[in-house]
Amino acid sequence: GKILSDGKVLIHLCNYIEPWDDLSLSQKKSLNQRYQMGCGCKITTCYMVPCSISAPNECLWTDWLIERKLYGHQAKHYACIKRSDGTCSWYRGGPPPEKDFIDISEP
Fold this sequence. Notes:
By secondary structure, the protein is an alpha+beta fold.
């Protein structure tokens, strides 16, 4: 999506429509700063196990598998962003991205 000159946010290529006030703090911050860092990444949805990524620039989206909804905890609190080495990983706020990544494949 993008922010238009009149300040409105236009979201496309998905069916996720939420009022601004209903978004988590992480989603609001990600729309303004973090999501653009993931433009070279691909998010792969995991509907059932086994599932895995097939390239280093993918993030595995597990909200449906874990919570049985597409827009659960991961969607509300994490952003898939590209690191300096070209790989992509889930990031949850806090320190600069290169210092705080979550690898959901680890226990």
